[in-house]
Design a protein that fits this description.
CATH architecture of the largest domain: 3-Layer(aba) Sandwich
Number of strands: 8
CATH class of the largest domain: Alpha Beta
Radius of gyration: 18 Å
CATH superfamily of the largest domain: HAD superfamily/HAD-like
Shape: globular
Order of helices and strands: EEHHHHEHEHEHEHEHEH
């Protein structure tokens, strides 16, 4: 057990869970069903991470008045089959078990709508590993400006919850953000905590480094070593 309840914030899609094409395929099928153009695969891949409403407008060119329709089509299919098709990345569940055993506080910080994120964690059997979950609301069709805040308020809410759990006004323990997109890293930097980039996710080459990631990790084992380095001062590779 650690003597410090270190806080680790995890992104969801692309970090804990591999959507296995359910997000990009679901968006493609929703656009097709709505009679709208489908972007090429690289563009669809870049739509994993940001709020869906923002991605549909900015990357797929969906008119404002059609965004809610496309989101409704996408979410219906995602709940029906996409969650079950998703897969936990190799080694992640075992890592969560070890972190819990060491006394870490674990949170999910995702731009996925919170109820859907909670359902995905339950379907994948991961819900019991986390102390709390912080996500977006269902207002993305009506509020395109909200995307400009990125993940900053979500990470802020997770840090505030960690402080409240410790009975302090501000978080006074080490905290780290783990994510696969620049949104995750930028939010961590904004709040003054380090971020570890998950190379197995959806970031383009160099994206995580350019955003200011403390390190980019390539496996659950690599992630564990860097977490211990950041929160306990144990050099990466020392346990090998």
């Amino acid at each position: 057990m650690t003597s410090f309840p270190a806080l680790v914030l995890f992104d969801l899609d692309g970090t804990l869970v591999d959507p296995a094409g359910s997000i990009t395929g679901g968006i493609s099928r929703a656009l097709s069903a709505a009679g709208l153009p489908v972007p090429p695969p690289p563009v669809l891949g870049s739509m994993v991470g940001p709020p869906l409403g923002h991605s549909l407008r900015a990357l797929a060119g969906v008119p404002d008045e059609r965004v809610a329709e496309v989101i409704g089509l996408y979410r219906a299919e995602y709940r029906e089959r996409g969650m079950a098709e998703s897969r936990i990345y190799p080694g992640i569940e075992e890592l969560l078990q070890r972190l819990r055993g060491r006394g870490f506080r674990l949170s999910v910080a995702t731009q996925k709508p919170e109820p859907i994120a909670a359902e995905l964690l339950r379907v994948q059997g991961l819900a019991g590993y986390f102390d709390d979950l912080h996500g977006a609301g269902f207002d993305d069709p009506q509020d395109p400006a909200a995307a400009g805040l990125g993940k900053v308020p979500i990470v802020g809410a997770a840090l505030a919850a960690g402080a409240a759990a410790a009975g302090t006004a501000a978080l006074q323990v080490p905290a780290v953000m783990v994510g696969d997109r620049h949104f995750d890293v930028a939010a961590a930097v904004q709040h003054g905590i380090p971020a570890l980039g998950a190379a197995w996710g959806f970031a383009a080459a160099g994206e995580l480094e350019a955003a200011g990631a403390a390190a980019v990790v390539h496996s659950a084992e690599d992630l564990e070593e860097h977490l211990m380095q950041l929160v306990a001062g144990i050099p990466a590779g020392a346990g090998r």
